[in-house]
Amino acid sequence: MSKKLLDSINKPSDLRKLETAQLPQLAKELRDFIIDIVSVKEGHLGASLGVVELTIALHYVFNTPNDLLVWDVGHQAYGHKILTERKNKFHTNRQLGGISGFPKRGESVYDTFGVGHSSTSISAALGMAIASQLKGEKRNHIAVIGDASIASGMAFEGLNHAGVTDANLLVILNDNAIGIDPSVGALKNYLTSVKEGKNPKQNNMIKSLNFDYSGPIDGHDITALISELERLKKVKGPKFLHIITTKGKGLQQAEKDQVKYHAPGKFDAATGEILPKSEENLPMKFQDVFGLTLVELAKKNKNIIGITPAMPSGSSMKFMMDAFPDRAFDVGIAEQHAVTLSAGMATQGMIVFCNIYSTFLQRAYDQIIHDVALQNLPVIFCLDRAGIVGEDGATHHGVFDLAYLRCIPNMIIYAPKDELDLQNILYTASLGLNHPIAIRYPRGRGKNPNFNISNSKFQTIEIGKAHLLKKGTKVAVLSTGFIGNNVSKALESIQNKNDFAHYDFSFVKPLDEMLLHEIFGKHTSIITIEDGVIKGGFGSAVCEFAVANNYTNSVKVLGIPDAFIEHGTIDELQQICKIDVKSLEILFSKY
């Protein structure tokens, strides 16, 4: 059996020893390598398959790591990692203690900028280019960005600045007409017309921003790519290369169903068929509880609107978009716009459900404060993927929302402990509130296999009310949200369970202060638990209450420590934070 080219390549300098004619064979081997490992270990598949030729060409033409390469988002960087000294570690991708699923500066000198959120590459690479210029260094600076990411405001800010500099910056647009879901918007239509040759050259918007524009060219033609990159290497100032690729290239099913194969889970490497997972008797996913409930509410109220920034499938807003296409909007990767669009609609009496992953809402913080809360507009923020999310790691954990929202006046914050609570708070919010509300719920499934949207009767929830779940004499455990189920399980198995009362504080703001007075009056020790950061979160709110009211009870605060939590399974990461069931059992047994 002949030796594979990939076997002898551990770093880009090895790659550059190959003849150009050998590179198509290397591309096939690199695709097969990614498919073989991701089929078993899981991860982001389609994006990396789509840029195999580009990845090889970039490291072949440019002198990385001296030349600085920035990948936008990083879903597509698997080939890059394999070619840059991590081939033998790639099987540990996204696993606890293994390599990150995204480029990460602390992991490799070839990862020039840490990414995970979109649309940062142009600004970062421009910053590097200007710094190199000031230091008198001769380097190339390359930003690779997708057609969904380039539609984001931050990407345009970077282009706008770069166009008035003479920085040595190359922006490569990887145009495949899809992000996680299909790309949307007028810019997508513009790029489509460019690809189809319908756009007159004099109307080229990139050229009008003072970029040397070339393309579009076939991003799977490695010879053409290398030729154009070699030419651009000699061109001074800001440059823009438009390439056309197919997401999932080389795996038929991934090319055919690009949404499903963005991150397909385990699949058969030979056939591409996704391995079935039994969902029989499993609880519903929280995202589906949200999406299906929203449809039921929208049937009864024509003023209900759904908005999501580029995550219709991941957030299950797709249900609303299918049922009421005129009242549900995917605005693309534009979280700031999504929030202020929601605010504008709210001024006109619409009931707006703005559905954003917790980690991505961070990108619209000023809009939450200035455009929503300051004007006390009753926008309903539905924060998917709140808490620890698992293998995507530090860039994607939704652990800061309680802290960053709690300090904003007028904001209501609610964390359901189960599917029924989520359904009922969505119903309550749909009836009309006097303030904006953030409803945070976790990635994954609920706890009740028998829960069914159509069989549920909607009930209103009293704003700011907490509830006793279990009576006890000595210690009061106060939990917020789904992590409270870990508390319930832990209390079931300890011998001194009668010493513990358990309270559900789904409302982090406003706090049920009347019940808190009762709790501090009855119990010597208080334990709070949340799946958010300890600094500034729910436990902090309870401690502030205690200080303000001169209580001297012992208070222990559990949650995410003051550190960025890396990637691993949710169970593994909860163990690290000591908020898993076993850790709680050990803690409770010591009281």
Written overview of the protein:
- Helix content is 36%, strand content 15%.
- It has 23 helices and 17 strands.
- The protein has helices at residues 12-15, 23-41, 46-50, 52-61, 78-86, 121-135, 153-162, 186-195, 222-232, 252-256, 286-300, 312-315, 318-323, 335-347, 358-361, 365-373, 401-406, 419-430, 484-493, 513-522, 538-548, 570-577, 581-589; strands spanning 68-71, 141-146, 169-175, 212-218, 239-244, 304-308, 328-330, 351-357, 380-384, 412-414, 437-440, 467-470, 475-479, 500-504, 507-509, 525-533, 554-560.
- It has a seven-stranded mixed beta sheet, sandwiched between helices.
- α7 (153-162) links the parallel β2 and β3.
- The mean pLDDT is 94.
* Major sheet description: 7 strands, mixed
Number of helices: 23
Percent helix range: 25-40%
Average pLDDT metric: 94
| Overall strand count | 17
| Biggest β-sheet: strands ordered side by side in the sheet | 7-6-8-9-11-10-15
Sum up the overall morphology in one term. globular
In the predicted model, the low-confidence regions spanning at least 5 consecutive residues are none
Which structural class is indicated by helix and strand composition? alpha/beta
